[in-house]
Write the structure tokens for this entry.
Amino acid sequence: MDHYHYEPLRKRMVDQQLKTRGIENDNVIDAFLRVPRELFVDNTYRNLAYEDHPLPIDQDQTISQPYMVALMSELAGLDQTKSVLEIGTGSGYQTAILSLIAKTVYTVERIKFLQAKAKIVLTEAGYTNIQYAHGDGSLGWEEHAPYDAIIVTAAASEIPKPLLDQLKSLGRLVIPVGGSYFQTLMLITRVDDHIERQAICSCRFVPLLHGTIE
Ligand code: SAH
């Protein structure tokens, strides 16, 4: 299928999966209409790229459901002046969405192979405001901190302290917190030294693991 066959699927995804569930930020909607999700899934799954569910990528990981990517991106409260740290590059799809709605995206992935693959796809597709690190994202990425927002795309049993420390005041951390099977998507706002927590919805992510894989 060429580029033109995917365009109606992309529009249908936005109308049926995002707008009906309350995604309303124009920048987020616009980014979803522009990013070719089919580039971020393996060839065998390309016909399913715009369906309403996650899909497998390499190394037993998943590309998140479009709605979850949209919700997290919206909750991060980004605009063209803001920086965002993404933990869990995975396929690079959310990285692409964030690249269109923020000034700079810093993305950390623990599996080197996945990061390298995502970097190739993103670079070939022309996304330039992204910086990549291979590392354990539960430690954040100190070098570029503090961030306006941090999005964690893997589930944590508790909120890693370095992430709170690397958030600006009034910065937002979006993170699934809970057990191995189900979690609660949390929006954490840092107001100076005080932390505000808001539970958004239940969700299911692969686990945030320690250490790195070459
Ligand atoms: N946003 C991605 C989600 C991929 S799944 C997408 O839609 O494609 C979650 C990713 O988090 C996996 O690639 C996994 O390897 C990565 N991950 C898990 N624990 C991590 C950690 N501590 N640091 C960095 N990445 C981690």
